[in-house]
Each structure stands twice: as C-alpha cells, then as structure tokens.
Amino acid sequence: MNSNPNRTECRLLIVGAGPAGLTAAIYAARAGLKPVVLAGAAPGGQATESPEIENYPGVGRTDGYTLAARMLSSATEFGAEIVYETALKISLAEKTVKTESSEYVFRELILATGAAHRHLGIDGEDKFTGRGISYCATCDGGFYRGKNVAVVGGGDSALTEALYLSNIAESVTLIHRRDAYRASPVLVDRIKAQPKIRRLTGVITALGGNEKLQSVEVATIPSGIENLAVDALFVAIGGAPNTELVRGQLQLDEDGYIVTDALMRTDRDSVYAVGDVRNTPLRQIVTACADGAVAASQIVV
Ligand SMILES: Cc1cc2nc3c(=O)[nH]c(=O)nc-3n(C[C@H](O)[C@H](O)[C@H](O)COP(=O)(O)OP(=O)(O)OC[C@H]3O[C@@H](n4cnc5c(N)ncnc54)[C@H](O)[C@@H]3O)c2cc1C
C-alpha cells in the first residue's frame, strides 16, 4: 500500500489514450501488466475529430468517435485503468509523472501523446474543416475523386500529398509561398513531371463558400490576386508534436518528434514512444495501433 495516497506506483504507465496508447494498453493488459493510461484532454485521440473513417481495416466506413469509443472499451475490458487526467510534468530521471491530483511512479513508460496539425490561421478555417479543408490527404483524399483540389505547403509532406492526390483528383494546385521547395529533390522532380499538378507561388488570403469550401483566394507572386475554384484544400504546413513535457530529456528530431528505433525504444531505457508523436513515415490510426502493439510486446517479454 502507498504511504502517500496521491502517489501511485505502476509497472507500466501510458501517457495518451489515442489509438497508439489504447492499443499498447490492450496488449499490455491482456498480458497481465495492469497498465495505467492517462487520457489527457482528448480521450480517444484525434480520430474523434473525424466524421468519416474508411481506411481502418475490417470495420468498413465509420466515424472516428465510434471507433475510438470501441478502443477505449476494449482497453478497459481487458483490465487497463484509464485515468481522465493530464500529465503536467514528466521526470524521466526520477521515473515520475505528475497530474493535478497525483504522482505516478513507473517502471516502464509509453509516450503516446500524439501531434496536432499546424493551421493556416485565416478566417473560415475552422468552419470549413471537414467541409473541404483537410489536414490529411491519406485520410480524406478519397472523398474528392475526380474533383479539383489544392494543397498548401512546400515541404516533403505537402509534395507527397499533392502526388497522392494527383492519382485521385481531376486537378491539383500546389500553393507555396516561395518559388523553391523545402522537400527532397526526388519529390520536386516528380511534382514537376506530373501534368495534373499546377504549381502556384503565393499566399492564401481568404477562403470562400457557404456550407462547404468552394474557393481559395491567393495573393500570387508577382501577378496579384487569383481566385481558385476548389472542392478541397489540403493544409500541409507542418505538424506540432506534443513533446513539450519531455523536451531536453529525450532525443527529438529537427521537427520535435521523438526519435525511436523499430521497437519503439527511445534513447532512454524503459521509455517508449508510439504513434504520431514519434518520427514515423506515416501518421494514421493503423500505424499508431501497430506502434502501440510493438512497444507493449517489448515490455511484456
Ligand atoms: C480530422 C482528422 C481526421 C483523420 N482521419 C483519419 C483517417 O480517416 N484515417 C486514419 O488512419 N487516420 C486519420 N487521422 C489521423 C489519426 O487520427 C492519427 O494518426 C491517430 O489518431 C494518431 O494516434 P495517436 O494515438 O498517436 O495520437 P492521438 O490520436 O493524437 O492521441 C493522443 C492522446 O494523447 C493525449 N495526450 C496528449 N497530451 C497529453 C498529456 N500531457 N497527458 C495525458 N494525455 C495526453 C490526448 O488526450 C490523446 O488521448 C485523422 C486525424 C484528424 C485530426
């Protein structure tokens, strides 16, 4: 029994209750580890924001809330303890995580805190999100088959999204504020060779439409304002991983994602990172789940 009622010792603490953290919890709980999961502000994770998910195998077309609720109930059915609190301080040296009401002492820690997409920050962006504005071509590109779409951004992810969409959409306009891209040369070459992709240099200044996004106003360089009729705009201007609590304690890559090996191990013993928060080539539900399973399996053995 703990001498301090607000201090909980646990074999495995998982921070984050999105698909990655919940899958880790399911695998660990099934192996008898009794994991404790801190769910934070968004139990179920980013998927709960998606009205339509059709690329998670085996469940057909569903909404993200339903899928996330099923993952949460699976984790608790197998014996994981979900705590609806946010980690406020993590000390990897002391092996402790503090929330508002408690302190958790862990033997093993899985970080599954996810990431957010950077927003354009212009009027109408929130209103049109899910109604023409998307932050993920792999997730939503399929809804715009044969339509006219635009992608904004100039890094690897923007160019990858534009190429992906060029196989689906009627036309793709790639909008970037500079002439040169920050992407790898091979992607730039592919973009230039793809006749369906039009390259436009400029800055998005306004979004138009009633119920759904219908147009994007671009201040082009050097010619002036261009109004582009589009069915969708894919925003790919970078991500913001939730890694503030471990900054300076773990190796992060240049964009702030946690560096792991193929077994989800970080550069610290007994600390794993899974899902969107780590440096992974694909940020999707299925890859987040796979990461969680791999990490938990390392702890179980
Ligand atoms: C609108 C939208 C639509 C999408 N559509 C699809 C799709 O169709 N198909 C697909 O495969 N993917 C889709 N994705 C991507 C998918 O949702 C993510 O790749 C996936 O959710 C990542 O899972 P994760 O567990 O790594 O992180 P997240 O889902 O981001 O979960 C992070 C968890 O960490 C918690 N957390 C964060 N900080 C703390 C803290 N300090 N303390 C405690 N907890 C904390 C949060 O509360 C949350 O529970 C979509 C994403 C969005 C935003």
* Helix run count: 7
The stretches of 5 or more residues where confidence is low (pLDDT under 50) are: none
Heteromolecules bound:
flavin-adenine dinucleotide
User: Would you give the CATH topology of the largest domain?
Assistant: FAD/NAD(P)-binding domain
Structural class: alpha/beta
Please state roughly what percent of the residues sit in beta strands, choosing from under 5%, 5-15%, 15-25%, 25-35%, 35-45% or over 45%.
Answer: 25-35%
Shape annotation? elongated
In N-to-C order, the SSE pattern is: EHEHEEEEEHEHEHEHEEEEEEH
Helix content: 10-25%
Number of discrete domains:
2
Just give the CATH class of the largest domain.
Alpha Beta
Number of strands: 16
Beginning-to-end CA distance, first to last residue: 26 Å
Characterise this structure:
Helix 2 (64-77) links the parallel strand 2 and strand 3. Helix content is 23%, strand content 28%. The protein is of the alpha/beta class and 301 residues long. Helix 1 (19-30) packs parallel to helix 2 (64-77) and helix 1 packs parallel to helix 7 (285-300). The strands form 3 sheets. Strands 1, 2, 3, 4, 5, 6 and 16 form a 7-stranded mixed sheet that branches. The protein has a 7-stranded mixed sheet with strand order 8-14-9-10-11-12-13, with helices on one face. Strands 7-15 form a two-stranded antiparallel sheet. The structure holds flavin-adenine dinucleotide. Residues 15-21, 38-43, 45-47, 49-50, 53, 55-56, 86-87, 112-114, 136, 139, 242, 245, 275-277, 283-286, 288 line the site of flavin-adenine dinucleotide.
